[in-house]
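Progress note, project year one: complex with shikimate-3-phosphate.
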Amino acid sequence: MSNIIVLKKKIKKFKKIINVPGDKSLSIRWVLFSSLANGISKAKNLLISEDVIAAIKAIRVLGVKVILNNELCKVYGNGLNGYKYKKNLTINAYNSGTLGRLILGLVINSPYPIKLVGDNSLSKRDFKRISDPLSKFGAKFILKKKKFLPLKIYGSSNLKPIKYFEKKGSAQCKSSVIFAGMRTNGKTIIKAKKSRNHTELLSKHLKLPIKVKEGKTIDRIEINKPKKITNFNYNIPSDISSSAFFIVLTALSNNSELIIKNVNVNKSRVGIITILKKMGVKIVFINKKKYKGELISDIKVISCESLKPINCPSILNSSAIDEFLLIFLVAAKANGISIFKDLSELNQKESPRLEWGKKILMEMGIKTVTTKNSIKIFGNPNLRVNKKIVIKKYLKDHRVFMTCIIAALSFGGNWFIHDKDSIKTSFPNFLKIINKLKK
Ligand code: S3P
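Model obtained:
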């Protein structure tokens, strides 16, 4: 089967109710936490995608039994000290930065070195941001070119708690250190620039010895070694980052309306909603409820006649970090110049996304001015694409692929979008939902 999608037409107006798959960040965290629990934990609506399967394979390598079918995932945790460390273990994180980075915190007490590998895209991403803080606990690392995968972690049974300042707004760095703190006697203290807080919320839900003091821009987290994690069941809510593709498609379409059911709208994840509302998109949350510390809601979006440009406050960057390529599409149709700054982290993703954002917009005929960490987008409310656009040679990056599908359906043109298989990492049924909206 061809790995290219060809699109030649804008989408017609639609009015639909859809469900999107489970949240990827929560799915991976549920797998990791339940691997340390005593007894069987069960998850419904776990995202079944390559990144989550990679997490399941990783805990299997560590001796944890997992049974997975379409409805239910069961993890047979062996307790906090239940990983079966052996000589010469290799963990493959494939495309998943979240798995690769979080698992290092969990295996920091391994008596044997463990090798961590990943795919071509992950092997180009920074792991020094993790090996630096974890080394302070007492682990040792050998990384390719001192920064990349493959790496070897030499764990220790004699870990010392650390004080750590996470300045990038990276939930992966913060979470890896929280996990390492859970392996260490004594109090680990983290000051962290705000980022998604699922690890903290799950730790609290599991009554682990964690304290979080929330500040406006920085949170202070204290973590001690737990005595036990009790097995726990979880009904994973839908992923706001996957929902975002359809939210933006609706915002950019004519006379359309969409409801997405049961989405995780945790405050640390909904930067895209705040940004789009500022740009004039009509979005409402309906049926809001709390679930195990997370906020869940249906999201209603109505398409928009006129879009305002935005000078995007950097304070929203972390809570919208996976959605910027989509936000750039909205800016492309806004009536004026939008500015996005302090975005160097965007080039640290599966592909260098700030560069790819610029390339895609340029192909669409939108003027941009970029620096290493910012982009100015000169919007055109009458934007129509009439030319052939070929998108290929990006690293395996699901979000580049899916953003281009949304661009093609919103602005027209003759698009050839390569690497359809990339969606398997986070959103295997993405194109099925697109087809549902087309009908
Ligand atoms: C994630 C954190 C973010 C995000 C990624 C998922 C997580 O990465 O981009 O898709 O689940 O912790 P950073 O922590 O590197 O910003």
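Residues 25, 97-98, 170-172, 175, 195-196, 321-322, 345 surround shikimate-3-phosphate (CB under 6 Å).
The first strand starts at residue 5 and ends at 7.
No further modelling is planned for this target in the current period.
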